[in-house]
Specification:
The chain is of the alpha+beta class. It contains 18 helices and 16 strands.
Length: 571
């Protein structure tokens, strides 16, 4: 909080005049409300232009004409448009919400306590017989428009003030609450898009560009975020990758495992050098410091024999950690995708420490058991990993080239591709918001190397839109499937898909609405919810996938980065 400025709990609309402030903006609700607050877009639709008419700066000012300090202005906006708007919305829906108990943590307001608020508001209004009513929807809609009117940045580029970090965070929390109220309205809507029959033509499912207003304070927060990420050792390429996304401002709040951070001082906006290796100095890592267990090797002549027959060599690890090389084309196998800088490579021989083989054996068994990849348990599942299956002996140089030429076939024919990244393997992911998962994956070392990007692309491409895909990412709490169907991660194979009806706000049970809309809130919302909300359930925990753009960005970065270096990926 900027300072302890309590909301008095009286009439929401007259609060500014009661505390000595006036509003300098107005909303004509032109074209039956199809235009955003303070901005006409319908009249200039053919030219692709907008006409701001009510976005005056400053948005609010003192009634006595005095110039208020920036921190007092932000404190007023927090009291009115955060606590006041939240109080008003809860009152309209009949929800008793203890702000102090739920939101306050010392001098900090925790917006995480707003998780699930839309469905709580719906349930309360349902008990009062107001769910889906026109009057309730109009009230929510009016509050939404007013919040957006006041918090929209008037200038195309710059904010009104050079805000401090705490002030930027307060303004962003108001924008988060605005999106939460949008979701509340969507829960009450009879259609996916609020239509002109309601006089509230706001496309909540797929907002048009004109409606994606930039909130005040976001530009300054972006500048501060750049500085914070640089100070915390983030790679410049990661910062550049995210800086144009809404998710960028949330990155500094992530705690990255200290052991996983590397020296990025030599990196640029387009290249990360922290994950490059020097083969002559390379040391294969053990699973924990101080381990000196023996290395177990594959006979390079067995590799030569398999590659001579143009077959993919696979390794079977027995329970007592003995290695068997198999070139049987019918043997199911899991391909391991990893970055060598994490220590799982070996440029000198096709060998790994016993402790690493035990780890790989354990991870592949868990993967196959969790996702039922090996229905016939009588037969073992093989493992393909470049360290063991691509010859490194100098006299087998031609066979090394042959194994590399077979990489596309190797990853396409595997039953699964398991990605191992040191930072992700240290991350307990199940309780993390979908936004945090997305940021961690696209900023991991695994997405920074050409080889691993190729392997990920091969695991994802070539599958129909209804296929689950074969790309799994290992986290601390187990392997996670990247599912092509709805472009999201899931933690275990669902028993069966089932089609879901379009949500009806007048359903008897709120649980059914929650199941369909997946209303567990992430830190930001109202990025495209997409049509999949009408099609599938994605995970037992059913997180609201409001940040699908993160995952699309992840896939796009894989395809774009690799295609830029190798236009013949599909071949």
């Amino acid at each position: 909080m900027c300072r302890n400025t309590p909301y008095d709990g009286l009439d929401f609309w007259n609060y500014p005049s009661r505390v000595g402030w006036k509003v300098n903006r107005h909303d004509n609700r032109c074209h039956e409300g199809r235009c955003p607050p303070g901005n006409c877009v319908e009249s200039n639709a053919n030219e692709g232009l907008s006409l701001p008419y009510g976005l005056h700066a400053p948005a609010v000012s003192r009634t006595d004409g005095s110039i208020a300090p920036v921190n007092e202005k932000v404190a007023f906006l927090q009291a009115w448009l955060f606590f006041g708007a939240l109080t008003e919305v809860c009152s309209i829906c009949g929800l008793v919400f203890d702000f102090h108990e739920s939101l306050h943590s010392g001098d900090v307001v925790d917006t995480g306590a707003l998780n699930g608020l839309p469905i709580k508001l719906y349930k309360s209004s349902q008990q009062l017989g107001l769910a889906g009513s026109m009057n309730l929807r109009r009230q929510l809609h009016t509050i939404m428009r007013h919040m957006q009117l006041i918090t929209t940045r008037a200038h195309e580029v710059d904010d009104e003030h050079e805000y401090a970090l705490a002030e930027c965070e307060v303004l962003l929390s108001i924008h988060v609450l605005l999106r939460i109220i949008c979701l509340s309205l969507l829960c009450h809507a009879p259609h996916w898009e609020l239509g002109p029959t309601d006089g509230m033509h706001i496309p909540l499912v797929q907002p048009s560009p004109e409606w994606r207003s930039v909130p005040e304070g976001l530009a300054r927060l972006g500048v501060l975020t750049l500085d914070r990420l640089a100070q915390r050792g983030w790679c410049k390429s990661d910062i550049h990758l995210m800086r144009d996304e809404d998710v960028f401002v949330f990155a500094p709040y992530l705690k990255r495992p200290g052991a996983a951070l590397r020296d990025h001082t030599g990196c640029t906006e387009t290249k990360c050098v922290a994950h490059q290796i020097v083969e002559a100095e390379y040391k294969t890592a053990h699973t924990y410091p101080g381990c000196t267990c023996e290395f177990i090797a594959i006979d390079p002549e067995r590799l030569r024999s398999a590659l001579d027959a143009k077959r993919i060599p696979k390794v079977i690890i027995s329970d007592d950690l003995e290695l068997s090389l198999v070139d049987d084309e019918t043997l199911p196998y899991v391909a391991i995708s990893h970055v060598w800088v994490d220590g799982l490579g070996n440029p000198f021989e096709n060998a790994l420490p016993r402790c690493q083989l035990q780890r790989l054996h354990h991870l592949v068994n868990i993967l196959c058991n969790t996702y039922r990849l090996n229905p016939s348990r009588r037969r073992r599942v093989g493992i393909w990993i470049d360290t063991l299956c691509i010859p490194v002996a100098p006299h087998l140089k031609e066979y090394r080239k042959l194994a590399i030429r077979l990489l596309a076939q190797t990853f396409q024919q595997s039953i699964a591709v398991l990605a191992l990244d040191r930072e992700l393997c240290l991350f307990d992911s199940r309780k993390a918001p979908i936004l945090e998962l997305g940021i961690r994956v696209i900023c991991s070392g695994w997405t920074k190397r050409l080889w691993t990007l190729q392997e990920a692309a091969l695991a994802v491409e070539g599958w129909s839109s209804t296929a689950e895909g074969r790309l799994y990412v290992q986290m601390l709490d187990g392997p996670v499937l990247w599912r092509n169907l709805d472009q999201t991660f899931v933690y275990k194979r669902p028993k069966a898909y089932r089609l879901l009806p379009i949500p009806d706000p007048m359903l008897d049970t709120v649980d059914e609405v929650k199941t369909i809309l997946l209303f567990e809130m992430a830190p930001v919302g109202m990025l495209p919810l997409q049509r999949y909300l009408k099609l599938r359930i994605v995970a037992p925990q059913a997180r609201l996938k409001m940040n699908l753009s993160v995952w699309r960005h992840f896939l796009a970065s894989i395809s774009q980065r690799f295609s830029a270096c190798n236009p013949h990926l599909s071949a």
